[in-house]
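Dear colleague,

Following up on Tuesday's group meeting, I ran the structure prediction for the two-component complex that the binding team flagged. I've pasted the input sequences exactly as they went in, so you can double-check that nothing got truncated or mislabelled along the way. The structure tokens for the whole assembly follow below. Feel free to forward this to whoever is handling the docking comparison.

Inputs:
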Amino acid sequence: MAQDTTSPSQDILSTAELWVKSGRNVAVATVIETWGSAPRPVGSHLVIDEDGNFEGSVSGGCVEGAVVSEAVDVIETGDPALLEFGVADETAWQVGLSCGGRIRVYVEPLISSKHS
Amino acid sequence: MDLSLLSRLNEIRAARGAAILITDLETGHQRLIQSGQDCTGDPLETELTKRFHSGKSGTIETKTGNHFLTVSVPSPRLVLIGAVHITQALVPMAELAGFDVTVIDPRTAFATEDRFPSATLKADWPEEVLKNEPLDAYTALAAVTHDPKIDDFPLQAALKAGCFYVGALGSRKTHGKRLDRLRDNGVTETDLARIEAPIGQDIGAASPAEIAVAILGSVIKALRKPGTV
């Protein structure tokens, strides 16, 4: 009971570190902005590996699929990406947020060697 | 993100530290600021101070473009001095509200596992327990034993550590005597004024459980509206 001193969104960052240290290629997605009734707060994380395995959530299920496939590209290219989801988006039919909110998600590769 | 940066962030978090990861959304460049680190002259100085307080992550616009601040602060903790009847009601309430709770009481008649979940209970003197689990700015402390031998030390430690809430049970008369003792120990008037006494929100609480609600109300208010308790 109440032994876990870190919030779930924070644990994801420990998971990300463990995954990289066990040799997996990893990207971290972070909710950086929300409008309207977005389901997960700013700062929520999703960690993804090159096979599309993931932990955490950025939307409570609505757009995770799209973020994961984008993250696999990010891992491949090594370039961060900025994604936006919402009802106003042209992809709304596939991956819109049913709650009517909008979110912006930053996806970045986790790199294990020093480089800027 | 560089793994070494993430490792450092995770280390800080594991030690109940606070840190902000700053990401330049245009260039992808990142840097990490640890709480307590001198950031005088940093272009984001004011923003950083504000965010360490609020614990909220968010995007900010600057002259050099948009930056995202991933703010990591420890989960709030409540340290209760005194395993009394009020505490029995307060522990489950505070846990429901998301606090990590620790109960400290050296009196083994009070601090029993029948009365408290063993994980939260430390049946030892506050001086001993706080040596291993020091207080910090993300911790609230309420002293409810009425006994100066037990309460005075942790109250002073809480003021020194900058706990976001410090409260002490006792009548105005009891509190008056307490203030005299702490003053004699060198506690400043500014610090003394930070102790909430009588403890808790003024809701006319009568039973131990109602007093627990009043205390939790004050702790949450101090957390969410700093400077108002």
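The beta strands of chain A are 26-35, 45-49, 54-56, 81-86, 102-110.

Cheers,
M.
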